[in-house]
């Protein structure tokens, strides 16, 4: 079990299920709560009742026109796609290029040749399905523009867009036999209609070179090295803050159970550690993010190819530049750190001593804005799939460390405590015996009096 990797596979499968459960039960509801609490960007949404019937009619017309026409275009171009794909695959097979470059990939590439007709059929079905949605979207355009004519223009323009896009994919001559009228009053909402064709992605024009990774060596970093460093810092800072009284055991328990009162732990503590990381990077004049070992640096050149860095690396670099531009003094950095830590709990922030705020109101507002941004980006990071599991492991480690220290502290005073307890017990027993003997003497005296 340990050598063939079965146990590791089972363990990582359970970890995947756990991360998926966190996404479904935590990340999803966290995003929906934010959307529910936010107001619409343009204020209240006003429904123009007069435009609704027009939009419905245009939507039905769009479905009646776009769906059959796009289906016909896809069916007519399907044989060309089939022959084009087979020609490319056989050319690669003869020249040992593409998927046939490695010998181990030849069986899979041969399977691709056999299954290519099914891929073409899937593309045709996907085009038919897209025709349904593209047709009904004409209702949205007609409603937004409050115009029946612009809705009809969108129906015709959709056919032209699909025809041009399919020509680009299949390397066919550019252009389309359909006109492409303007269907937006505001030209910024519509892509420029003067361009003759949809621009082809760069991946189609310039295929990647296989030797680039050997000619340009790069420092290998683990995909989630930033998260690992963040939670190591959370564990260390969390223990210090509990001992200093900044964080209570009740807040740790609330964070474990997911209560709102545990926000200081679940968001504030990671935000504080993230602030310390960015502050350290800014003071070191680092071009990227300097981790806690003061050696490892993550920047745009050596960042791992992971979705986490695609989403959060650039915002974190912007935050680091903003912190660097503030030229924080030691007192301001301490004030901002505590503000980042406690700003999620207004009552605790009010009752806590976070130090004197800056005298300038402008400076105070700038620090408040930085604290809110750090809290916001940390909340976004907390929705990443592996975050919840790592956070709970860190909280568990903090609790175990505190329990261990508490046990050692109690053990160190157990000797003196047992002696005092024994002394109290001994004195109580002595007083009890004395009191009992006195009561027996009193009873004998009373008995003698009664006899007399």
Automatic annotation (TrEMBL):
Q: Where is this region: Disordered?
A: 188-211, 402-452
- Indicate the transmembrane segments per the record: 50-76, 108-134, 146-162
First and last residue of the signal peptide:
none
InterPro entries membership: At3g27390-like
Q: Is Ribonucleoprotein set as a keyword in this record?
A: no
UniProtKB keywords: Membrane, Transmembrane, Transmembrane helix
Name listed for the protein in its UniProt record? Uncharacterized membrane protein
Species of origin reads Helianthus annuus
């Amino acid at each position: 079990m340990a050598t063939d990797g079965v146990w590791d596979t089972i363990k990582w499968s359970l970890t995947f299920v756990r991360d998926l459960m966190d996404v479904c039960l935590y990340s999803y509801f966290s995003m929906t709560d934010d959307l529910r609490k936010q107001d619409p960007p343009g204020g209240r949404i006003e429904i123009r009742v007069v435009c609704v019937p027009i939009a419905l009619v245009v939507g039905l017309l769009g479905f009646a026109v776009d769906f059959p026409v796009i289906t016909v275009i896809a069916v007519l171009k399907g044989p060309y796609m089939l022959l084009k794909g087979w020609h490319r695959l056989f050319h690669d097979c003869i020249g040992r290029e593409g998927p046939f470059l490695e010998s181990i990939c030849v069986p899979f590439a041969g399977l691709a040749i056999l299954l290519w007709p099914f891929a073409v059929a899937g593309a045709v079905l996907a085009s038919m399905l897209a025709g349904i949605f593209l047709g009904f979207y004409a209702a949205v355009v007609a409603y937004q523009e409050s115009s029946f004519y612009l809705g009809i223009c969108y129906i015709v323009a959709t056919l032209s867009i699909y025809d041009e896009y399919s020509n680009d994919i299949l390397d066919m001559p550019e252009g389309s036999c359909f006109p492409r009228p303007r269907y937006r009053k505001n030209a910024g909402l519509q892509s420029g209609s003067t361009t003759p064709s949809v621009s082809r992605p760069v991946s189609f024009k310039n295929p990647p070179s296989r030797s680039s990774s050997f000619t340009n060596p790069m420092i290998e970093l683990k995909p989630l090295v930033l998260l690992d460093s963040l939670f190591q810092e959370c564990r260390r800072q969390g223990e210090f803050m509990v001992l200093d009284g900044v964080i209570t055991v009740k807040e740790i328990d609330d964070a474990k159970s997911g209560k709102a009162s545990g926000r200081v732990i679940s968001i504030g503590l990671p935000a504080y550690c993230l602030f310390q990381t960015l502050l350290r990077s800014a003071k070191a004049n680092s071009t990227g993010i300097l981790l806690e070992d003061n050696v490892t640096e993550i920047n745009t050149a050596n960042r791992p190819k992971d979705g986490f860095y695609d989403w959060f690396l650039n915002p974190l670099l912007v935050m680091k530049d903003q912190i660097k531009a503030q030229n924080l003094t030691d007192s301001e950095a301490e004030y901002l750190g505590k503000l980042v830590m406690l700003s999620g709990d207004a009552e605790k922030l009010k009752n806590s001593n976070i130090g004197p705020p800056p005298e300038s109101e402008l400076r105070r507002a700038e620090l408040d804005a930085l604290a809110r941004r750090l809290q916001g980006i940390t909340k976004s990071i907390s929705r990443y799939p592996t975050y919840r599991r790592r956070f709970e492991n860190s909280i568990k480690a903090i609790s175990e460390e505190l329990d261990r220290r508490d046990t050692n502290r109690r053990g160190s005073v157990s000797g003196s405590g047992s002696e005092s307890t024994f002394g109290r017990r001994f004195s109580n027993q002595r007083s009890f015996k004395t009191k009992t003997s006195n009561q027996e003497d009193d009873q004998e005296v009373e008995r003698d009096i009664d006899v007399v």
